[in-house]
Write a sequence for this structure.
């Protein structure tokens, strides 16, 4: 068993491979299908990835939004602190307690808010008061804000003056070191700029307050002022098509750019479920390929079946052709044999008859009656055999005799026939009445022979009680001329109507009626050769009517013949 | 040579069938006109006789009439007829084709070859004797032959 399966499978594959080579169409079809499916797969995958990417981006936005909100809140708190400082200083301007009150006010602040680097007061925009007064902060005392050469610093102060509100700068590198957010508020006294208050806030506490670490577990982030430099996170994030959330700071928004840690594509791929799509497209692909292969196999099977049947049919047809050929050959040989036999046998038969007659001449007178009768039987037998052979020869030779190419007057043929039968007619006291006959497509010899046979039969099979009265008439019907020989003879029972046309068939004993039994077969064969036939109708005891049906002559031919 | 006087007329009978030849010779013998007969069994022998070829034909007599069968071995009647009619010496001898055939094509072909008569052998002995007798009468009595 294992041996069988082991050998069968490779054979089948080999067979399959051979069939594929025979059928490049199938391979092409499968290849095209695979290509189309791959294209469909690629398109579907791209759509799916796009949609997944959108999902991931919206997730990122959703994750970033609360952080942006908290960040905005953290900034707002710090700006509110600056505004509070501004209010405190404005109140203190009416008295002289500013320098004394400031440290107490300032020192109260860090408890409410982490990461305050300093708070400062700058009358006439020159820093005078700073808290806490540590080594770093001490550096800024005396610093003229409007003359700060660092880009953006003086601008911030001017913006605060023009808006009469808080303006922010940074986060930037602080004079005191570290990154910080600087906020300044301009103060006015009697409608004129008095100076500014300010604060510097460390950045990390702001970010912590917004719980940035919660976001950075899954996202890479970058934080900057809108359109400005990145001050927190990775600058590279900006090049990675980040989701950007706006962080509302009072003086110009910040932008929070967010990108998944693994990148958008990977995140989208992780997000999207690939399995169903793979299953669907792969399954459809396999199904289509299987269907194609099955169809190709079925078509191949049908084609093989058709080939097989065609071969069988061809074989059968060749067989039939060969048999028909053999049959035709056999028939021809038979005819040749029959003709040769009929022809060559006549010679010795004639000799036998002649010598028997010679004997009759020489010794007939000396023979008694009985012996003379014996000799007479020999003579008669030879005569009959010769007549039979002659008729067989005529019957067989009929096929080879050429057909007429022009019509003849049937009257002429009838004249010939009556001449040939004149002596017999006289002998039996018969009479022939005749109507005018048409032209028919026949040759005169054949038509004469047919008349001789039919009229001769009418005379031979006459009624014993009355002399033969024969009528020859004509009519036309169905494209044929019908020449009818009607007699008042003994008639023929209808069950013999076919037999009488068969070779050597005789309905009567030889003593009753002589004849070879070949007359009607010869006549019918002649009629059929001429494209017609001979039919019989009879009323037994009253007479018979034999009709020769022959094609009618076409009219131009008739007028041409009858012209002169 | 034999010392016997020659019969007035000489007939060459060309016939392969001994039975037919026997009948013909008998019919000629019984005829009213005195003839002698030479029997050739086929066309080759007949032509040799007519052309006096071979030792035993050296003194062959020129026939006044040739009775010629059609179907024979070696050379058939058509061949003999064609040879005789294209030979200036022999052309004048009347040739009567005497055969069992009455096929029309045969008849036409034979006259085309220059036969003087085409006669179908009658079946009846009496008729056959009459035909032979009639032929003798016609060719030796009625018509004038070249000498």
């Amino acid at each position: 068993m294992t041996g069988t399966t082991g050998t069968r499978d490779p054979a089948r594959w080999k067979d399959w491979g051979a069939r594929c080579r025979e059928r490049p169409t199938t391979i092409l079809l499968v290849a095209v299908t695979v290509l189309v499916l791959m294209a469909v797969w690629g398109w579907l995958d791209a759509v799916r990835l796009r949609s997944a990417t959108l999902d991931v981006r919206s997730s990122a936005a959703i994750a970033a939004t609360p952080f942006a909100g908290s960040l905005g809140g953290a900034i707002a708190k710090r700006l509110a602190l600056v505004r509070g400082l501004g209010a405190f200083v404005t109140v203190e301007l009416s008295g002289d307690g500013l320098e004394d009150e400031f440290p107490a006010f300032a020192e109260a602040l860090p408890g409410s808010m982490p990461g305050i680097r300093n708070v400062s007061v700058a009358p006439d925009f020159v820093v005078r008061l700073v808290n806490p007064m540590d080594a770093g902060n001490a550096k800024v005392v005396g610093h003229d804000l409007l003359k700060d050469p660092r880009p953006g610093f003086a601008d911030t102060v001017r913006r605060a003056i023009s808006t009469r509100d808080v303006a922010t700068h940074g986060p930037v590198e602080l004079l005191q070191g570290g990154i910080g957010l600087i906020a300044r508020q301009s103060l006015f006294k009697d409608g004129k700029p008095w100076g500014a208050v300010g604060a510097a806030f460390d950045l990390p506490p702001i970010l912590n307050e917004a719980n940035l670490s919660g976001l950075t577990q899954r996202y890479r982030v970058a934080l900057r002022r809108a359109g400005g430099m990145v001050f927190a996170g990775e600058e590279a994030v900006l090049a990675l098509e980040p989701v950007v959330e706006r962080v509302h700071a009072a003086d110009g928004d910040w932008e929070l750019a967010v990108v998944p840690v693994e990148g958008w594509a990977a995140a989208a791929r992780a997000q999207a479920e690939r399995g169903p799509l793979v299953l669907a497209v792969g399954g459809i692909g396999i199904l289509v390929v299987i269907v194609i292969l099955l169809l190709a196999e079925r078509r191949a099977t049908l084609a093989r079946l058709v080939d097989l049947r065609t071969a069988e049919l061809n074989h059968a047809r060749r067989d039939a052709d060969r048999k028909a050929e053999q049959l035709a050959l056999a028939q021809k040989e038979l005819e040749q044999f029959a003709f040769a036999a009929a022809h060559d046998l006549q010679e010795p038969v004639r000799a036998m008859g002649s010598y028997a007659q010679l004997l009759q001449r020489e010794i007939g007178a000396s023979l008694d009656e009985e012996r003379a009768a014996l000799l007479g039987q020999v003579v008669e037998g030879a005569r009959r055999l010769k007549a039979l052979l002659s008729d067989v020869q005529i019957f067989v030779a009929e096929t080879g005799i050429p057909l007429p190419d022009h019509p003849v007057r049937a009257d002429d043929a009838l004249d010939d026939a009556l001449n040939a039968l004149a002596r017999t007619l006289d002998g039996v006291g018969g009479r022939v009445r005749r109507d005018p006959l048409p032209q028919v497509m026949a040759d005169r010899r054949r038509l004469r022979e047919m008349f001789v046979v039919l009229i001769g039969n009418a005379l031979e099979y006459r009624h014993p009680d009355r002399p033969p009265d024969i009528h020859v008439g004509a009519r036309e019907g169905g494209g044929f001329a019908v020449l009818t020989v009607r007699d008042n003879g003994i008639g023929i029972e209808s069950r013999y109507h076919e037999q009488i046309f068969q070779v050597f068939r005789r309905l009567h004993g030889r003593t009753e009626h002589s004849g070879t039994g070949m007359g009607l077969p010869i006549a019918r064969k002649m009629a059929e050769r001429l494209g017609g036939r001979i039919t019989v109708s009879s009323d037994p005891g009253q007479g018979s009517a034999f009709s020769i049906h022959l094609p009618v002559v076409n009219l131009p031919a008739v007028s041409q013949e009858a012209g002169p | 040579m034999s010392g016997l006087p020659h019969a007035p007329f000489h007939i060459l009978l060309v016939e392969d069938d001994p039975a037919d030849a026997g009948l013909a010779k008998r019919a000629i013998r019984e005829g009213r006109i005195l003839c002698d007969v030479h029997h050739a069994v086929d066309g080759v022998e007949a032509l040799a006789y007519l052309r006096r070829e071979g030792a035993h034909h050296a003194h062959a007599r020129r026939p006044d009439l040739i009775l010629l069968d059609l179907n024979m071995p070696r050379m058939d009647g058509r061949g003999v007829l064609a040879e005789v009619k294209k030979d200036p010496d022999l052309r004048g001898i009347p040739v009567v084709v005497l055969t069992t055939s009455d096929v029309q094509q045969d008849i036409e072909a034979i006259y085309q070859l220059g036969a003087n008569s085409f006669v179908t052998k009658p079946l009846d002995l009496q008729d056959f004797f009459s035909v032979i007798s009639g032929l003798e009468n016609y060719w030796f009595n009625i018509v004038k032959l070249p000498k």
In short: The CA atoms of residues 557 and 563 of chain A lie 10 Å apart. Chain A touches chain B through 14 residues (CB under 8 Å). Residues 1-7, 555-564 of chain A have pLDDT under 50 and may be disordered. Chain A is about 55% helix and 20% strand.
